[in-house]
Every structure is written in structure tokens, then in C-alpha cells.
UniProtKB/TrEMBL annotation:
Keywords: Membrane, Transmembrane, Transmembrane helix. It comes from the Eukaryota. Pfam families: Fung_rhodopsin (PF20684). The keyword Transmembrane helix applies. It is a multi-pass membrane protein. This is Rhodopsin domain-containing protein. Belongs to the SAT4 family. Residues 28-286 form the Rhodopsin domain. The chain crosses the membrane at residues 12-32, 44-66, 107-128, 148-173, 193-215, 227-245, 257-278.
């Protein structure tokens, strides 16, 4: 039932609302950086192409819905119209033109969605690197290695699926808006590509979602405060759920099934971009619980302490100090405490 509710009204309303929200939070991200006098790094700049590509996805959905392609059930002959009034359907007279429109819009949408998701994933990974890695060239740091490994995987994932989908039919792009038999014969089994894309997308989302958790839970904080900090980095959970939901294959009307797949793909992209930006905005909306967690961490790791420590303990405290200063910076808190080096 959840996936069968993509009526034209729902599709149009949520598409517009989420598109506006994305533009708003990306703008706020740059405003927050400016207010805190922070450098704009690659994690910030990647949100711009991601937002532009999401606008392209929204435009495609709005165009298809306005032309009665998305959100409407498959048309039936006039002789069966009386038995199909439970669903909003494309009229039989619109069928010919709408087939071509649907195929073009679907092809454009899926082509755009791949780099959109790739840019968002990379933005989140580079944001993790900004927070948790002291030196990007420190190849002894397991967090740095893990993040660079995921950056490499996501970059290759984006390029591989984008090029595979773009040139699935060689340079004969018009084959995509002919018929299913031509596509299968000349381009191969398109469903295999989609399944591989959806499953690998979900796996990447899960890994990215859990990647910062070990660093957070190693901090010397009370458990309740660890949950508070974890919540900040769990905002991408809904986008992961969206990527999982689009993998289901319910027995829906074929046109509504296409709408469902594209709609939840759009929800994943837009909510992922929101999740990528919201942690950087928390400095504009401070909450006492996280402030308390940060101040507690500041006192527990003894940043002002000059007592001699062996190198391994000192390194651990330096790492914790770096995470603290990074969290302070994202929160817009004063980070004037010595580094402890």
C-alpha cells in the first residue's frame, strides 16, 4: 500500500516541496560557512552539482506528471473503461504520444539520478574526512583509509553505471523510446542493470551511514551523549530506507510501478542531500544537549594538560581533540582551546 499511493497530487506536491527544501538547505550551508568564516571545501562544492541534478530530476517528474505519464495507471480500451474507474488513468487517446514521453523522461531521469546520488555520497564522505581525519595523507589512520576507500568505490560506481547506462545501446539512443523488444535485443537486459544499480546503491548507503559510528563511539562520553552525536549523523537513514523501498517489486499496474520506482529514487536523492547539509547547519540552531556533549569531551580528554604521555596515548588524545575541534567548528562553538600537541 505504501508504494501504491503515488497519485499525481502526491508526486507533484512532494516533488516541488523537496526541491525547494534542497535549494534552501544548500544555500544555508554556504551561509553557515560564511558566518563561521570557514573555508569552502570539496564537500561543500559537491552539493551544487547535486542540487542542480536534483532540479533536473524534479523537472522530469513534473513534466511527466503534467503530461499524464506518471501517477496515472496504464490506459485501457474504451470498452473496458467502466471497469477501471478506481484508478486515475491516462486516456486511451493519449496513449501513443505518452509512450514516447514516458520512455524519454524515464531514460533522462535515470541517467541524471546516477551522478546526483554519486555527488551526494561523495559530499558526505568528504564531510566525514573533514570531521574525523587530521591529515588526508596519513595512511596509517584507519579512518582515513576507510574513507578514501569508499570515495574511490563511489567514484568508480558513479562513472561505471553512468557510462554503462548512457551507452547501453551504443550511440543509438533513439532505441530507448521504441519498444521493450528492441531494447532487450539491441541493448541487453535493462532490468539487470537496474537491479545491480539499486542493490549496490543500497549497500553503499548502508556503509556510508555506519562509517562514522566507530569514531563517535570511541569518544569518552556518556552513552546518552554518544546517542545525541550519533543522531546528527543518522539523518541519512531515510534516504537509505528510500533506496531499499525502490528495490521491492510489487504487483502494481505497470505505469504506476514506473512512477513508484522513479518517485522513490527522487525521494532518496533529495533526502540524501538534505541529510548531507543538515549537520553543517546545526551551528545556526544550537541545542544544549550536543553543546554539553562537546564541553564534556573537552574536559575529559584534557586538552590543556601538559602531562607527559606515551606516544600511543598522545596520538589517541590528539585524534579525539581533532574530532572535538571539528564538531566545535560545525556547531559554531568557540574552538580556542589548545590542540594538546
Amino acid at each position: 500500500m505504501l508504494m501504491a499511493t503515488q497519485s499525481p497530487t502526491v508526486v507533484l506536491t512532494l516533488t516541488i516541496i523537496l526541491g525547494v527544501l534542497d535549494a534552501f538547505v544548500v544555500s544555508l550551508r554556504f551561509y553557515a560557512r560564511s558566518q563561521r568564516k570557514q573555508r569552502l571545501l570539496i564537500d561543500d562544492w559537491l552539493t551544487i552539482p547535486a542540487m542542480a541534478l536534483n532540479v533536473g530530476l524534479a523537472t522530469t517528474l513534473i513534466h511527466g506528471t503534467a503530461r499524464h505519464v506518471y501517477g496515472y495507471a496504464t490506459p485501457v480500451p474504451p470498452t473496458q473503461a467502466a471497469a477501471s474507474r478506481l484508478l486515475e488513468r491516462t486516456s486511451w487517446t493519449e496513449l501513443g504520444d505518452n509512450i514516447t514521453i514516458a520512455e524519454k523522461d524515464e531514460w533522462i531521469f535515470l541517467l541524471i539520478s546516477i551522478p546526483a546520488l554519486g555527488c551526494i555520497k561523495l559530499s558526505i564522505l568528504f564531510f566525514y574526512q573533514r570531521l574525523f581525519v587530521m591529515s588526508k595523507r596519513d595512511w596509517r589512520d584507519p579512518r582515513n583509509i576507510a574513507i578514501w576507500l569508499m570515495i574511490t568505490i563511489v567514484t568508480m560506481w558513479t562513472l561505471a553505471f553512468f557510462l554503462r547506462y548512457l551507452f547501453a545501446c551504443g550511440f543509438h539512443f533513439d532505441i530507448w523510446w521504441t519498444n521493450a523488444m528492441n531494447i532487450i535485443t539491441l541493448c541487453g537486459d535493462f532490468n539487470t542493470i537496474l537491479n545491480a544499480l539499486a542493490i549496490s546503491d543500497f549497500v553503499c548507503d548502508v556503509i556510508i551511514l555506519i562509517l562514522p559510528l566507530p569514531a563517535i563511539w570511541k569518544l569518552r562520553l556518556p552513552t546518552a551523549q554518544k546517542f545525541t552525536v550519533t543522531l546528527v549523523f543518522a539523518l541519512g537513514g531515510f534516504s537509505t530506507i528510500a533506496s531499499m523501498i525502490q528495490n521491492f517489486n510489487p504487483e502494481l499496474d505497470v505505469d504506476l510501478l514506473i512512477t513508484t520506482f522513479l518517485f522513490w529514487n527522487y525521494l532518496e536523492a533529495t533526502t540524501a542531500l538534505l541529510a548531507a547539509c543538515l549537520p553543517t547547519l546545526r551551528g545556526l540552531f544550537r541545542t544544549s544537549s550536543l553543546d554539553s556533549a562537546i564541553q564534556s569531551l573537552r574536559s575529559r580528554i584534557g586538552l590543556n594538560s601538559k602531562s607527559p604521555l606515551n606516544s600511543s596515548i598522545r596520538k589517541k588524545e590528539q585524534d579525539e581533540a581533532y574530532v572535538l575541534r571539528s564538531l566545535d567548528s560545525e556547531r559554531g562553538l568557540a574552538a580556542d582551546t589548545p590542540s594538546g600537541t
